Amino acid sequence: MSIDPKDQAAVYHLIQAVRKTGDKAELPDLLKRLAQLRQEATKTEEQRNRYKLIEGSASANQPAQ
Fold first, then answer.
1. Every domain of the chain and the residues it spans
2. How far is the C-alpha of 6 from the C-alpha of 2, rounded, in Å?
3. Could you report the per-residue pLDDT of 27-40, keeping only the tens digit for each?
């Protein structure tokens, strides 16, 4: 099993655990990290969905003359 530094769920659970222990010194860095991971995931998803294939007949895609 490998550790994924981009695992949003793991960072979120770590934040929850840190909040419960009361050691709030590392919370700001963890919250920034989670926000950064969410931004990166959003950008990746936008790039992935930028182009979509649409199936149809060849004549439907040609302009009318």
1. 25-50
2. 12
3. 999 999 999 999 99
